[in-house]
Amino acid sequence: MAETRAFSVPGRWHHRLEDGRIQCDLCPRYCKLNDGQRAFCFVRQRVGDTIELTSYGRASGFCIDPIEKKPLNHFYPGSSVLSFGTAGCNLGCRFCQNWDISKAREIDRLGDRATPDKIAEAAAEGGCRSVAFTYNDPVIFAEYAIDTAKACRERGIRTVAVTAGYIAPGARREFFGAIDAANVDLKAFSERFYKKLCYAELEPVKDTLRYLREETDVWFEVTTLLIPGENDSDDEVDRLSEWFVETLGPDVPLHFTAFHPDFKMTDIARTPDATCKRARNRAKRHGIHHVYSGNIHDEGGQSTYCPGCGEVVIERDWYRLGAYRLDRDRCRNCRAAIGGRFAAEGAGSWGRKRLRVAIG
User: Fold this and answer.
1) Full-prediction pTM beyond 0.90?
2) To bridge 248 with a disulfide, which of 37, 159, 252, 318 should be the other Cys (CB 3.0-4.6 Å)?
3) Cβ distance 205 to 169 under 8 Å?
4) Which among 75, 71, 72 has a CA at the least distance from the CA of 341?
5) Domain range spanning residue 165?
6) Are residues 63 and 33 in the same domain?
7) Do residues 146 and 252 share a domain?
8) How many other β-carbons are positioned within 10 Å of the β-carbon of residue 243?
């Protein structure tokens, strides 16, 4: 299987054009490459008559994290997840908060090398319920992510994609068919923002969210990073929330997280706590049942409430869980169903720990 492969492997989504170039069909950029050229993401390169993934088996590091850090609040709460990423990205976000990884160009300096089977074994040995493809977008290392997901499933371990959802329709089925859960970054709700600050487009992300809702059983949650003066207006939050309820329904969790100055946007101040709280309240008024505040200390905004009776069913203080009042997916008080994936034995106890792991 993957154990015999080199660190550069043939990609799965591309075709030759009439002018001799080869088009990458993995993401909506559809990069058209001459021999030797790299795509926008940098890790996919034309070599002869194919496009290769040059970061297969190479990682920027492995850590065991709380699943709530992804953030996923309704996917086996309290459990631990083995997290890793590679290099590169197919978006160009000026505010990237993992820019040292996503903008990396020195692939050969990626210090951790591990096959899919080794990753699955490490997750099992570490007692992790899942493996997360994160830090940079797993869409660009889809072959590696899919092979790792298959190795994990053989051992009863689930997989999580932390992604911007910028993936072409032709690649969606195979990619998300291998994934159990996702957190999708909905960067903003305007084309202006996506073009100006991400060098991308909004509609393909909306299409991915529709696809996840209508055509898969992947559990997914959505995150919007609120940047002062760019995507935090009441009008934009209202439009996002209206579309969200109409298209995704009221039970998909939405996270509003606080921006901090980074990468090419160090001139903008950190998002005030009040902005996240205001956005949360507005989204809830539009009918979204589970809206969370992130990157700020807000126990009320990080806890989960029953949509039936309003009682707290999962208390959270950052990534540490308090009272847990669910029987599988049912509120113990009124028996209303809570959307998500929950263990029969209740919540895990990983807490706020972060543990660096060496593999291979």
Assistant:
1) yes
2) 252
3) no
4) 75
5) 58-304+339-357
6) no
7) yes
8) 15
